[in-house]
Design a protein that fits this description.
Layout lengths: L16 H17 L2 H6 L12 E10 L3 E9 L5 E8 L6 E8 L2 E7 L5 E8 L18 E8 L6 E13 L14 H16 L3 H6 L5 E4 L3 E4 L2 H6 L1 H4 L2 H8 L7 E3 L2 E4 L4 E10 L5 E10 L2
Antiparallel strand pairs: 1-2, 1-8, 2-3, 3-4, 4-5, 5-6, 6-7, 7-8, 9-10, 11-12, 12-13, 13-14
Length: 294
């Protein structure tokens, strides 16, 4: 049985690159369109990634006493060499990782900005999920679990991360280029600001970050043409359940496709919108919330 928490969890053992990508795409589309009914009515039309694109496996999970982390790993063709980054959701700063895989055994070394090794992960890709979210299905690289320790410190802290999605990007290409963005930091700063504003119930800020008109399911699909309309129905739109789901999101290393960047499991989608003109008179593309799925 496929757990519902994340789009990446439809990725099963034995999927090839194109199959895995299509499954992520279909799942992402379901979130973008606002439910399974919409997904059944429309088939994705985007093309598979080019041969020059790199696969980036994106994981989220916990380290130690429930510190939330995100991890991005890139595997060599023989799956033995690993490079990537991880971050603490609280701080949002990427920390470089380098390592190796020997079968299901994984060793990752953590480095600071000066290139010094500061810590290490020692883990396994288990055949079955220790938390039972995949039932009895045999896993490939969907879950990574093990211990983390600081350099020179014998104390070990447990960690576990689960695959949320696979990103595809060309060398030196921004993470969110497929969605039309050129500045990854600006997109993630926008997502952080929106999440924080929702949690603080900053109604004016939230309403000002949406793209209009906005269609949202509130007792039926409704069209909100202006920020004033959203403000009037704010507590119906951002009810406690949606706020709780947005609070659980990590506004970094997000899934992206041609129609936008997905915050969380599809609760919020972010896309570039022409808001104003630059010095050359051309429109400047800025991030805006393009869809909210309750």
């Amino acid at each position: 049985m496929t757990p519902p928490e994340s789009i990446g969890r439809v990725l099963g053992t034995g999927l090839n690159r194109r199959s895995a990508w299509l499954l992520v795409l279909v799942s992402g589309l379901a979130g973008l369109l606002g439910g399974t009914g919409a997904a059944q009515q429309q088939t994705p039309t985007a093309s598979p990634p080019s041969a020059s694109a790199h696969e980036l496996y994106e994981y989220v999970g916990t380290l130690g006493d429930n510190l939330r982390i995100g991890m991005s790993l890139r595997f060599s063709k023989d799956r033995r060499q690993i490079s990537g980054t991880y971050l603490y959701a609280k701080y949002g700063r990427d920390i470089r990782l380098e390592g190796e895989a020997d079968g299901r055994t994984v060793k990752l070394r953590e480095f600071d900005e000066a290139g010094r090794q500061t810590a290490a992960f020692s883990g396994q890709f288990p055949e079955q999920d220790p938390r039972g979210r995949y039932g009895t299905s045999k896993l490939d690289r969907e879950v990574l679990t093990g211990t983390w320790s600081k350099a020179g410190d014998p104390a070990e802290h447990s960690f576990q991360v689960s695959l949320t999605h696979i990103s595809f990007a060309k060398p030196n290409e921004p993470r969110y280029a497929v969605a039309g963005f050129t500045n990854d930091a600006a997109v993630e700063a926008f997502a952080q600001k929106f999440r924080a504003a929702v949690l603080k119930r900053e109604v004016d800020v939230v309403a000002g970050m949406l793209a209009y008109p906005m269609h949202i399911n509130v007792g039926g699909r409704k069209r909100f043409a202006t920020s004033a309309a959203v403000k009037q129905s704010y507590d119906l739109i951002f009810d406690p359940e949606l706020v709780k789901r947005i609070e659980a999101t990590i506004p970094f290393h997000m899934f992206a496709r041609d129609q936008g960047v997905m915050l969380g499991n599809g609760e919020v989608w972010i896309a570039p919108y022409p808001l104003k003109s630059g010095p050359d008179g051309k429109p400047v593309l800025v991030p805006r919330v393009s869809a909210i799925n309750r």
